[in-house]
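TA notes. Do not distribute before section.
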Amino acid sequence: MPKTIRRIYFRRNRRISSRKNTRKLTKGVIHIQASFHNTIVTVTDVTGRVVSWSSAGTCRFRAKRRATPFAAQTTVVNAIRPVVDQGLKRAKVMIKGPGRGRDAALRTIRKNGIRLTCIRDVTPMPHNGCRPPKKRRV
C-alpha cells in the first residue's frame, strides 16, 4: 500500500504584513510639479519607484484655491507624512513648472525635517520652438 503524500501549507502560520510598512527608506527623490492650476508632489525611492504621492486636488482644494502656496504646502505634508514614518532623512528635489507653489513646497519639505541634498529645476525649455505656421494668402 503506497504512502499518502501530505500537503504542506506554507502560508498557514505566517503573519501577513503590508509591504508599505516593512520597507525602510533613508534616501529618496521628491518630484514637485507646480503648474498654474495645480501642484502635484510625488515621492520616489532612488531607483524611481513611487512610494507616495499627493496633489492639491486630492487635498480637497478646488478651483482657484488649488494654485495657492497654501495648497502646495498641504499637498507636500500629505505626500511626505507616510515616507517620514518609514525613515526618510535625505532627499533630492526635482521641481518642474512655473506655479506659485514652488517656494512654499520647498519650505515645507525643509520644515518636516528632511535634509535636501540637491534642488534641481527640471522645467522643460524649448530650444528653438515649434515651426511657425505658413504665411496667410488672401
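Switch to the second chain here.
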Amino acid sequence: MFLPEVFLHFPTVVIKVHTIKMNNGSLTPEFLLLGLTDDPDLKIILFVLFLVMYILTLIGNSILITAWIRDPCLQTPMYFFLGNLSFLDICFSSAIVPYMLAQLLVRRTISFNMCAAQMYLCLFLGGTECVLLGVMAYDRYVAIIYPLRYTVIMSMSVCITLASCCWLSGSVMSLLDTFYTLQLPLCGSKIINHFFCEVPSLLKMACADVFATEMVIFSAAIFILLIPSVFTAISYTQIIITIVRIRSSEARLKAFSTCASHLIVVTIFYSTAISMYMRPTSKTFENQDKMLSVFYTVTPPMMNPMIYSLRNKNVKMAVQKLIRRQLFQ
C-alpha cells in the first residue's frame, strides 16, 4: 500500500520520494538516485558512451571465457585466473551499468532492499577483484622469477584454493560493510547523489555517529584493498627488476610493454577504490566521487580483456579457432 507522496525541493526541482508501508506497519523508503548529470544533452552522450562500454565489456569477457573453456592450450594457471577475472567483470559491470543507463533516460528510484542488494553485490564483486588482481600478480611473479618450478608451485589445486579465497574474502568483507552500513538510522531527504548505492553515499545520510562504521569499513579496506595493492606493487617491482636483467632488448621491450599495460589498469583500479573507501566520509566530495567511481566500476571491466588477454598471441589463436569453428561447423 502506498502512502501519500512527500515532495522535496532539490535544489530548485520538485522531487518525489515514495515510502512503502510493509505488513508490520514499518516504512521502507525508496531512494532517489540522482545519477551522473542533469544536463539532457550530456545524458544522451553518456548513455551512448556507457552503452558501448558495457557491450564491449560483455563481448570481450564472454569471448575470453569461451576461449578459455574450449581451448586446451589455455588450460594453464594464468588463463584460469583470467577466466575468473572475466566472469567477475561481467557480473560487476552488470550490477551497476544497466541501472545507470536507465537513470540516464528517466529519473529512477530504488527500493531499500534493492539498494542493499546492489551495495552488497558491488562490494562483494569489487572486493573479490581486488584480491584476485593481487593473486594474478603473484602468478606472474612465480612465472617470471621461478619459471622452472612454475607448474609445481602453481598447481591446479593451488589455483582453485587461491581463487576460492578471493571469492570468500570478498563475500565476507562485503557482508560486514553492508551489515554495519544498513544498521545506521537514515534520515533526511532519501536522495542519493550517485549513480548506484555505494557505502560512502549512504553514510552521508546517517542520523547517528558513523565513526564505528567507518572504522569497520576502513579495517576491511586494509585487508581487501591495501594489502593486495601493496602485494601487487611488490610483485611487479620484482618482475621489473628481473626484466631489466634480460639481455635481449627486443624481449625486454616486449616484457616492459606488457607489464606497463597491466600496471596502468591495476593502478587506476586500486588508487580510485582506495581513495573512496580509506578516507573519512567528511572528506568526500560527491560530484568528484561519482567520477572516481566510474574508474573502478565501469572502465576496468571493459579494459581488462584487452589489456590482459586479447593482445596475447595464444588468446588470439584460440579466438580465431573458435570463430572458424562457429562459422564452418
